[in-house]
What does this fold into?
Amino acid sequence: MRAPPNWKKRSVNAALAERLQDRRHWQRDVLLGLQDELQKLTRVTAKVLMQDLKTLREKGGVFRLPEGLGGDESLAVTVAVQKLQSRTPADDLRALVGDFVNFCGFAIAGAVVQHKGGPPYVLENVLMRLDTELGHRYEHLVEQLGVHIRRNEEPNQGPWHGQIGLG
It folds into this structure.
């Protein structure tokens, strides 16, 4: 019995389709993991901002954070986000994540250092604006992440569409 004349082409196409499907699953896992880690980073940043605001209102200034807030937790989640960011093939999403990480770093440490010597009401306004902006930036980032997750799940629309020939 003879194999059909184009059996090699069909088996190569099937192997390529399977590889593409595996890449899509891997990419979906990366994007979902990134979504989880971004949520953790947002929570850590918000906790630090709220603690700074509480301390400022109670004591008239901002001092060292309590043990277990910020520090190691913030660093660990930032590193996890950056690791997943580096695995994301979409340039626009990588840039958004990078901007968000930089914003969180500034919100956690930079803003307080920059405004520490000024009047308490100025720092209070800065902290409240940062908390509001954190929410807006997170919401925008998660919307864009959702677009990439959905695009990755659509046939012929993933990040590698057009890079692997299946015809």
Summary: The chain has one domain: 12-153. Residues 160-167 have pLDDT under 50 and may be disordered. Residues 12-153 form a domain with the Four Helix Bundle (Hemerythrin (Met), subunit A) fold (CATH 1.20.120).
